[in-house]
Automatic annotation (TrEMBL):
Name listed for the protein in its UniProt record: DUF4426 domain-containing protein
UniProt key word Signal: yes
Leader peptide range in chain numbering: 1-26
Domain of life: Bacteria
Keyword annotations from UniProtKB, A to Z: Signal
Length: 141
């Protein structure tokens, strides 16, 4: 059964993942049903540099017996357009991958909030976890 989250708390469509039995020895499921290791990511780039900074990842653990769908997207009201996010892997242990898409922003500090959310089979929102994103654009020397 594919996993996805749709709901009022997410502006972006959830990334579809297939639920599959974990091979080998999987870590125990999180007690809360959803855990994200770390709550923030920081990036920096020089304005106009040819390539954005490398993507960064956080580990996401999901209790697949409680959550049938998972997704990520900007928090409600978030207007930042300088990042993308996706979830890779299969439950119970997944990776949240965040990438910077623009180095052409004016120099300064930028902040955004991303959410990881789980839902049940009927697409009801179960839990969300906020992730703070910080992006520093430096003056070109």
């Amino acid at each position: 059964m594919p996993m996805a989250v749709r709901g009022p708390r997410l502006l972006a469509a959830g990334l579809l993942l297939a639920l599959a039995a974990a091979c080998g020895r999987a870590p125990p499921p999180p007690a809360s049903g959803l855990e994200v290791e770390g709550g923030s990511l920081s990036f920096s780039a020089v304005q106009g540099q040819p390539a954005p900074p490398p993507p960064q990842t956080l580990v996401v653990r999901v209790d697949k017996d409680k959550a049938k769908r998972i997704g990520t997207g900007p928090a409600v009201g978030e207007t930042a357009d300088w990042f993308t996010a996706r979830i890779d892997g299969e439950p119970p242990e997944l990776k949240l991958v965040v990438s910077i898409t623009r180095t052409t922003l004016p120099p300064g500090d930028y902040r955004a909030q991303l959410e990881v959310a789980t839902g049940d089979a009927q697409e009801n929102l179960l839990q969300t976890r906020p992730i703070e994103l910080n992006y520093r654009v430096l003056f070109r020397p």
